[in-house]
Each structure stands twice: as C-alpha cells, then as structure tokens.
From TrEMBL, chain A:
InterPro entries: ABC_transp_permease, BCAA_transport_permease. It is a multi-pass membrane protein. The keyword Transmembrane applies. GO terms for cellular component: plasma membrane. One of its GO terms (biological process) is amino acid transport. Keywords: Amino-acid transport, Cell membrane, Membrane, Transmembrane, Transmembrane helix, Transport. It holds the Pfam family BPD_transp_2. Belongs to the binding-protein-dependent transport system permease family. LivHM subfamily. This is Amino acid/amide ABC transporter membrane protein 1 (HAAT family).
TrEMBL record, chain B:
Residues 2-235 form the ABC transporter domain. It holds the Pfam family ABC_tran. One of its GO terms (molecular function) is branched-chain amino acid transmembrane transporter activity. The lineage of its organism: Bacteria, Pseudomonadati, Pseudomonadota, Alphaproteobacteria, Hyphomicrobiales. PROSITE patterns: ABC_TRANSPORTER_1, ABC_TRANSPORTER_2. This is Amino acid/amide ABC transporter ATP-binding protein 2 (HAAT family). The keyword Transport applies. It comes from the Bacteria. GO terms for biological process: L-amino acid transport. The keyword Signal does not apply. It comes from Shinella granuli. InterPro entries: AAA+_ATPase, ABC_transporter-like_ATP-bd, ABC_transporter-like_CS, BCAA_Transport_ATP-bd_LivF, P-loop_NTPase. Belongs to the ABC transporter superfamily. Keywords: Amino-acid transport, ATP-binding, Nucleotide-binding, Transport.
Length: 296, 235
C-alpha cells in the first residue's frame, strides 16, 4: 500500500511539472506553428531571479512572485526579440532567431553570473517530508501536485470561459479568420507568450526546487521534456500536452522503480524507445489538435 | 460606399488581379462574376486585408483602407465571409458568434439584441448553440459564418461564393436570406459562380476574366449580354 501511494505521488508530481512545461510550449506552437526554443531559458530566468533576490531579505513568496513576473517579462521579450520581426517572413528565420535568443540568454548568464551552480533560496517546507499511509514523501512533491492542479484548472478556465482564451483557441485554428473578426494578432501572440512565460516561471520554481541550484543550462532538460510530451500528446492540442506530460512521467517513474541499478543510467534510452513505439502507433500524437492546420 | 480603383494583387510573379476598378453604392447589392481563377476571391481577400495590394486603392466611406490589416478593416465597418467557410470547428456555435462580436465585446446588451435578431433569421443556429461548429452541416456552417460576420454589425458585407458546394434547396434558402439582408439596408458585394441566382438578387454586376473586369452594368444588361457564357467558357 505504502509503495502504491509513493508511486502515485511520484507520478503525479513529476507529471504535473511535465504537463505545465508542455502546456507552456504548446500554447505558442498552437497559435504560431513555431517551437519556441528559448522556452527553457524562461525557466533559467526564473531560477536566477530567485538567486539574485536571495540576499534581499524579501519573504520567499515575494521572491517567487518576482521570479514568475520576470519569466513572463522575458516571455514577452522573446516575442519582440525573436518572433515579431521575422514572423511573417520565414519559418526558418524564426527557428534560428529563437535559438539565437536562447543562446544569448544562456551566455549572458555564463558571463554575468557564473558557469557554476548557484544556490536558490527555498523555504524549509521544500526539504521536509511527510508520511502518508506509511509512504515517506517530500512535501515539495505535494506542493507540485497542488500547484499543477490549480494551474491546469486556471488555464482550462482561461481557455474555455474568457473571451481572450476563446480568441486564442480560434487563432490557433485559423489565425487569418480570427483577425478578420477583429481579434488583434499582436495581442493574441503577446498573451500566448505571457501565459507561456507564466507557466515556465512556476515550473521553474518547482523544478529548481527539486535540484536546489540553478546553472545556465538548467532549461535544456525541461525544454526537451516539454517537447517530447507535446509530441506524444499531439503538437497542437492543449489537453494532449497535459496527457503527454503525465504519460511521460508515468513512463519515467515506472522505469525508475523497475530498472536495476546497472540499467538505470540508460533510463532515457528506454523512455525514448517507448516514445518511438507510441509515435509509430499514433504518429499524430495521442490527441488530435484542431481540424485545420494552416500556418499563418 | 466602397470604391476600388486600379487594384492589383500578385502572388509572387503571378498577377492575379490586374488593375480593376469597381464601386458599390450604399444599400446596393453588387455581384462579381467570373469563372474559376478569374481573380474574384483574390479581390475579396485583398479588400478584407488578408492579402496586400500591389497597386491601386480601396476606399471605404471616404477612408483609405488599402494598406489596412484585417483587424482594422472590420473595425472600419466591412465584414468578410470567405469562400472557405471558416468556422472555428472546435468552438461551439455560440462561441463562434461571440467572437464575431469581438469588436463590440464591451456592448453586451447590444450583442444580445443582435444575437436574438440573428437567431430569428437563422433558427437552426439557435437550436445548435452549444454544439461544436465542426459538427454542423455545410449549409449550417455557411449560415454560421454569415451570422458571425453580421455580429460585427458591418455596413458593408463581402460574401465569397456562399453557395459553393451546397445542395440546391439550401442554396435557395441562402439566396432568400441574402435578399432579406439587402432589404435591411446592408451594402453587399457578392462573389458568385452561380450566375443566374446571383443576377436575380443583384442590382448591378461586374464580370471578371483573367484578373481584369471585362463587362459591367445592371443585372439586366449583364444577363442579356450575349458574351457572358464566352467569359465562362474561355471563348
């Protein structure tokens, strides 16, 4: 029983983080049909904001809010720096500009902060454990689960019930038609980047809360995870991103529990083999996105 | 109301529209006729702001909208129903209509009133309010895009091939509805391949061929013009 509880909590907390990461990526992809390769750096920005504000004596929650705000700001900045100038002209150009922006941010962190890991302030609660039904569990896993439930519900509400969210979904199926109804393209895209930055900021705190430190390359793994989760779930579907995130976490956690010590270092190889199998079975991803798929 | 002078549209090196001029007066229903590839839809898309003009000018009620983007064109009072019948398939009928009123989203009461009026005009849409638009039949989707365009309360409506791919009985109802809209005082530019029906409702018509206007006049004149079939059959 304790084992089962442990397993479920592990899957849900890892899956919650993966789902939020994937959602942040797919919100941009759904509207622009472009992958934002600078997405991982938003997580890095959140981490370094925490590090830089650690000496300020602010309450931890204020620092966390500041970190999320910076991630939102850099999300919008990504749009202005890498996407908006070249968006209408060429897909290849945006691919390269978003890579360039990602590199720029990473190198700025290397140059102005340090290539070495920096400690991020974390409240004591992140390192405490509790016992649930005999299973010893870090409290931060429960925080991750709670945060992902709240955020997934909030994103679902935004996308289903508000005019902005419905306009964003409309723009994701047919951008030109949405514009012909008067929905301003720039507003929709900036909102998508802001929402993406918000999710990256929260995930950044939860993710770095697991590791405890931030390095310039910290965003690479979350970007990869988000990308794989969206590919499994279906690149253009928001529920797909969430399903993909949880499924990837299920695979990872199962392998963690079942692989022997010798094989554990090859875990990613097993994970990716399974991903290949899933894609052979469902090349479109598990959940099909909106019907039309014209790039805008 | 709508004045187009010397308008050209290019796709790369292909010149789809070659310096056409046309006018639509207030309350008038003007048809733009022509075979496939004559440049009708390119003209419509260019007026709507979805394509950039290579030359010429588009003036709506004295306001130059030649270089306007789509979101500015609709705010200027011109709504477009594209031929591709672009409903948002995952959104419900009600959500589609709500987005039609995006530019009036602060005026909730006005939108409700407008919605009620449209529901009497299109009772099917009221019945299917909470259904995803992608599950509607072709005719219902056509009604939905027209109703959605009307939610923006335009003064000029561009209709691109509203009868395309629909059963004859439904086409007839669409044309009845176009007549109702015309009687309500709306200015309409109607693109059609269905010549007889288009001329039956139109005040005036233009005929396009290979990107240029080759004939224009009242509906009567165009109908009696013997060379109409020649333009269609490429003679």
């Amino acid at each position: 029983m304790a084992f089962a509880i442990q397993f479920v909590i592990d899957v849900l907390s890892l899956g919650g983080a993966y789902a939020l990461m994937a959602l942040g990526l797919v919100i941009i992809y759904g509207i622009l049909r472009l992958v934002n390769f600078a997405y991982g750096e938003l997580i890095m920005v959140a981490g370094y904001t925490m590090y830089l504000s650690s000496g300020s004596g602010l309450p931890w929650l204020v620092m966390a809010a500041l970190a999320v705000a910076m991630a939102v700001l850099f999300g919008i900045l990504t749009d202005y720096a890498a996407f908006r100038p070249v968006r209408a002209k060429s897909v290849t150009a945006v691919l390269i500009t978003s890579f360039a922006f990602s590199n720029l941010l990473q190198n700025a962190a290397l140059l102005f902060i340090s290539p070495r890991p920096r400690n991020v302030p974390l409240p004591d609660i992140f390192s405490q454990t509790v016992s649930i039904g005999g299973a010893i569990t870090p409290v931060r896993n429960l925080i991750t689960i709670a945060a992902s439930i709240v955020l997934l519900a909030a994103v679902a509400f935004l996308m289903r019930r508000t005019t902005l969210g419905i306009a964003m979904r409309a723009a994701a199926t047919n951008f030109t038609m949405a514009r012909m109804l008067g929905v301003p393209a720039n507003l929709i895209i900036s909102s998508a980047f802001a929402l993406s930055g918000f999710l990256a900021g929260v995930v950044g705190i939860l993710w770095i809360g697991r590791i405890g430190t931030v390095v310039p390359g910290v965003g690479l793994e979350p970007l990869l995870v988000a990308f794989i989760a969206t590919v499994i779930g279906g690149m253009r579907s928001l529920p797909g991103a969430v399903v993909g995130g949880f499924l990837l976490a299920l695979i990872d956690t199962t392998l963690n529990y079942t692989l022997s010590q010798d094989l554990l270092k090859f875990r990613d190889a097993f994970t990716f083999s399974l991903v290949i199998l899933i894609l052979l079975w469902r090349p479109q991803g598990l959940i099909k996105g909106p019907a039309s798929g014209q790039r805008t | 109301m709508l004045e187009i002078t010397g308008l050209s549209v290019n796709y790369g090196t292909i010149r789809a529209v070659r310096g056409i001029s046309l006018t639509v007066a207030r309350g008038e229903l003007v048809s733009l006729l022509g075979a496939n590839g004559a440049g009708k839809s390119s003209t419509i898309k260019c007026i709507a702001g979805a394509l950039k003009a290579a030359g010429g000018s588009i003036v709506l009620e004295g306001q130059d909208i030649t270089a306007a983007n789509p979101e500015q064109v609709i705010r200027a009072g011109l709504a477009t129903v594209p031929e591709t019948r672009d409903v948002f398939p995952d959104l419900t009928v009600a959500e589609n209509l709500m987005l039609g009123a995006y530019i009036h989203r602060r005026d909730q009461a006005g939108n409700r009133q407008n919605l009620e009026r449209l529901h009497t005009l299109f009772p099917r849409l009221a019945e299917r309010s909470n259904q995803p638009a992608g599950t509607l039949s072709g005719g219902e989707q056509q009604m939905l895009v027209i109703a959605r365009a009307l939610m923006a309360r335009p003064r000029v409506l561009l209709l691109d091939e509203p009868s395309l791919g629909l059963a004859p009985a439904i086409v007839e109802r669409i044309f009845e509805m176009i007549e109702t809209l015309k009687k309500s005082g709306l200015t309409i530019l109607l693109v059609e391949q269905n010549v007889n029906q288009a001329l039956a409702v139109a005040d005036r018509a233009y005929v396009m061929r290979l990107g240029a206007i080759v004939a224009s006049g009242t509906a009567e004149e165009i109908r009696s013009g013997s060379d109409l079939s020649a333009h269609y059959l490429g003679g």
